Amino acid sequence: MNQQTLILDLDDTLIHCSKYFIKSKNQFAEQMQDWFDFLSKDEILQKQLEIDVKNVDKHGLHSSLYPESLVLTYKYFCVKYGRALKKSEIELVRRVGQEVFELEVQPFPYVYDVLDSLQEDGHQLYLFTGGDKKNQRRKINQLGLDHYFVDRVFIHEHKNSTTLKKLLNRIECEKKSTWMVGNSLKTDVKPAIELGINAIHIPSEFEWSYNIIDLEIEPSGTFAELESLLQLPVYLRDYAFIHEAI
After folding, report:
1. Using CB atoms within 10 A of its CB, is residue 236 exposed (0-12), middle (13-18) or buried (19+)?
2. Of 216, 233, 163, 202, residue with least CA distance to 12
3. How many Å apart are CA 199 and CA 223, to the nearest integer?
4. CA-CA distance, 20 to 11, in Å (whole number)?
5. Ranges of H-type helices in 36-160
């Protein structure tokens, strides 16, 4: 078996993430409509998305930014329509956002079987995830993923080519046998392609628009798109078979 170095994303690749935010945003929008009954849900969600993406681009993926984006959205519409800001409403909105980070997260149902297969096939597994350490560690520990990654966990609030390059330099891997696997074109696939390693895109059922971009760079390594993480072990076995035969 041709052993590979696999760098795996966490949120919406191994575990559910976006669906919790969708539920939270809908709850926020419904609350906002109680205060601004002339606003459509789409108007509210579009403004929240605009504020959220701007903050993430500037400050990274810290968990405090999401609740703050809800508060800033509330304040925006209050100022725009001359509604008095209320401390109780601000705290209610912030609480809606904070609850996302207190939920017991769920892995995709087949994750442990896939990770077991990848380990049995001899691949070296790394976890490269975006967010603040406290929140990401909470999820990793809760789901027992330390068993597979041990000290090979890398958490960055800015998940991009710069932080991926730091990881690659630290583990001293060969580009031709190294893969970035994740759901985000922006924070998983694009950095991998820019750095010349292989990339596997596994689209999420619920995708944050922040992650969706046009890839304007030609891969120098292998680039594949799989429908499910379940296909990953077989794909890598087939890849190894073909390349060992060449």
Report:
1. buried
2. 202
3. 5
4. 11
5. 41-59, 65-81, 87-98, 111-120, 133-142, 146-149
Q: Which residues make Cβ contacts (< 8 Å) with residue 108, sequence separation at least 6?
A: 14, 15, 16, 229
Residue 53 CA to residue 66 CA, distance in Å, equals 10
Q: Report the C-alpha gap between 102 and 97 in whole angstroms.
A: 10
Residue with tokens 């390059």: 165
Q: Name the residue among 9, 33, 24 with its Cα closest to residue 153.
A: 9
| Cα 111 to Cα 117: distance, rounded to the nearest angstrom | 10
**10-residue averages of pLDDT along the chain (246 residues):** 90 95 97 97 97 92 95 98 98 97 94 97 97 96 95 95 96 93 94 96 82 75 94 91 58
DSSP character for 85?
P
- SS3 category, 60: coil
Fold classification of 5-16+105-245 is Rossmann fold (3.40.50)
Minimal CA–CA distance to 229: which of 198, 194, 200? Answer: 200
Here the tokens at position 176 are 């031709």
Q: Match 């992650």 to its residue by tokens.
A: 211
Question: Which stretch of DSSP H or E encloses residue 27?
Answer: helix 18-35
Q: By the 8 A CB rule, do 108 and 16 touch? A: yes
Which residue ranges make up each domain of the chain?
A: 5-16+105-245, 18-102
